[in-house]
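Protocol step 6 of 9: fold each sequence in the batch and record its structure tokens directly after the sequence line. For illustration, a two-sequence batch is reproduced in full.

Sequence one:
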Amino acid sequence: GSPNSGVFSIINKSWIIVNGLDFEGCNQPFYSRSIGVTGSSWGSVTIRNCIIANSLSSGIFIQGAYDLGAKPSGITITNNTIHDINGHGVFTRYGMSGLRSGGNVMDNIGVVGGGDCYGFFGNDSPSTQEDFIIDGDSLGSCPIKSHVIMDDQMFNITFRNTKFRGTNGFAGFDFSGTGTNIYIYNNEFSVKVANFRSPLTWNTDKGNQ
């Protein structure tokens, strides 16, 4: 991969399955990734049973549509192991819908670069991220940042049946964007927060949580 690209890149493609690959030691910078899904018209992409480890970059990066209008939909992320990376575990940016994620194990995320297990970003875009379900993950230490940050316009987002463990440097959930219909239930928190924040932190006055 090239800087700010990816080792495995999917650009505006649909009906793709990435299964059982091992990405070890990606030495590209923070904003590159081991697996990247980008563009405004991808859909029905599945990433499963992969290992991403010992990397300077983020793990799985998903970028959607910056502008209003049609946006990509349908990505499934299941049973992957991501550990000892400097960037985000799963990093989304800009408008998309229909993310389904579960059975993933993450640990030691953002150990130098300060990434989050799940980083949802894109507040500079008018588009939205919506209809996400994260169900049954195990999220370990994020020593600098948070297990989850939502810093975009987020609608109909569910986190359930997920274990939050280890140490984080900021919060379990950091709500920094706008959000409507955010559901968090049946989760287990066994977390040491390294500063004055808490497992759930509302850090915004931008919308309704």
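Sequence two, same batch, same settings:
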Amino acid sequence: DLTGKVALITGASYGIGMAIAKALAAKESVEKVYIVDIDYVAEEDMTDKMMSFQFDLTNERYAFFDRFDDVDALFFTAAVKEKGPFQDIPFTHIMQAFNVNTIPALRLIDKFYSKLKGEKDFYCAINISALGIMSVPMYSVYGSTKAALKSFVDTVNAELRYDGCQNRIMSIMTPITETCTNEIDKSVLDGMIACMESKWELYTPLSE
């Protein structure tokens, strides 16, 4: 479990990332929560256990993450999203969407892969969104970035199983509306954390 553990969350200055950060920081057993985002976390959202770091995930210099060698749990929640018909989405956003939503997750897994393959417990979760497995009009680009992530996570988990490793990456399949707000039901967050602690590969919260 996460007793005495240190968590790192990317893309957590708002939305589901911030909700997860607050839920972890509220757990007495969790020692520390690092938050990495392009923006610093607002002072009113910080607690004593949280430490905020500013970093652009599209930056080439991922040596930035070398400082987090004490991390036991990794969450990736960063995302940009533009709603609209594909024909109206500018190419600049298509590039930005993959450069923020998809590529940084692969780079972070690469950065922490030795922990993921190690004998010690390492907890990992990536917010895929239900759009990673559903075809929803007006979300063609965002859905594509998330579908690519889902394929990546499933394939890496298959490789970990083949190699006899105990750790897994959990796909968080949140509904669209729950990725953009800090106010996520406590039972959803508790369930998410519990499933990650149990090394589940998929978490799909029930929503009304």
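Proceed to step 7 once all outputs are recorded. Observation for sequence two: The helical segments are 15-26, 91-101, 103-111, 113-117, 140-162, 186-197.
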